[in-house]
Give the backbone structure.
Amino acid sequence: MIPNTRIWGASQRMYYLANQLVDSGFDTTVVSGFYGEFKHEGKCLNFEHIPVRIKPDFIQSHQEKLAVKSVTDNKVKAPNKLGFKSYILETLVKPVYRAMERLLFNDYGAVGLFMFLWNRQALPVINEEILKKNTKIIIFSGPYFTCFRLAFKIKKIHPHIKIVLDYRDPWNLLKKGSFITNKLEHKLLQIADSITYFSEKFLDAMHDRYEIERGKGIVMYNGFDDALWNSIDKSSSKSKTDKLVITYAGSDITFEPGSGRDPDALIRAVTGSQLNEHVVLNLVGCKNLPEKNKNGNNSSDINFLPSVSHKRSLEILSQSDVVVILSSDEFPSDYTVTGKLFDGIRSGAYILGIANSSEIDYKRIIEKEGLGTGCYNDVSEIQNELTTIYKNWKAGTLDRDMIKNIDDFSRISQNSKLISQVVAWNNEK
């Protein structure tokens, strides 16, 4: 299994799958990039983990600095005048580099070149593991999608190995890459033995675009951690309050326009309405918090919370009346289904889906399952929804449908879809 990411929100898909494979009796190794020594509270690695460093060393050092910065930098950068060197870097070097990245890699965060160099170090490590353990199956998880290229070489050297491409986000389908990266993705999809998708809508779009065999595709949602939720159910009961508790939790809430996770419209909808004294708004996972918002609004009960442990985040959701699922992108991906949606489902709270698209997939799921409602990321629209929600809550009629087979949305159930395929391959002679 090969994920390559430094962020818990992105790495948890492979973390849960790897542990479940071990529990199912499979010898499982995760090969990943090395982004510095970070430990996720309460998370045990039951699988073997091999972090691979990039060569040359100065690029590896740069990656580690980025990792530290992404976790610890909570300040907004003040605008400053560019010196001559910075001007050349920003206006000439970076645009050329980004154009090259899009042409050759089209990867997230413009790190395709770094990932290409990482691949060169990872390939011999993977080959050694294959020979040592008689590996039968390799799962490539992206982003970063440049690691998918290793599938070509693995399949050429070891044609018996089954290849799984795991999509946590769209690649060229969303970012509209170059003819080079589109052709590359098409070839990779052809050699893959199985492909896992994060949503039904994304599967349909990929099959239409690349004419993939339907039998290859598996939809595998980022479901909730059933064991962790059960421990919270046993250890806490919902507190009574005379205020409507609304929570938006994310791994990286940034108060910057265009960031995709900017709750500015939600905050203004609460502080600018007549409900501001009757609502508690929790924002969990705040980063780059502007000075003006550090203490919230004097007449509003707004809690700006930094990143917390996974368990603490779920505890806050369990105490909420409304869980917000939000994208502040001007043109969001309609395929988006965030993992927090499934925690929202498990919490039993009413769910408010906010996005600048009526077609975004998490809104479809919310409305289809009767879990809540959705609206645009617009102050007046959010205020209208909150007013209706508050009236229903006050009247004791803020109800949502309770899914009968809620366990189907757990990590265990979702991962079992792929594990069933792994078992079948493993039993082949």
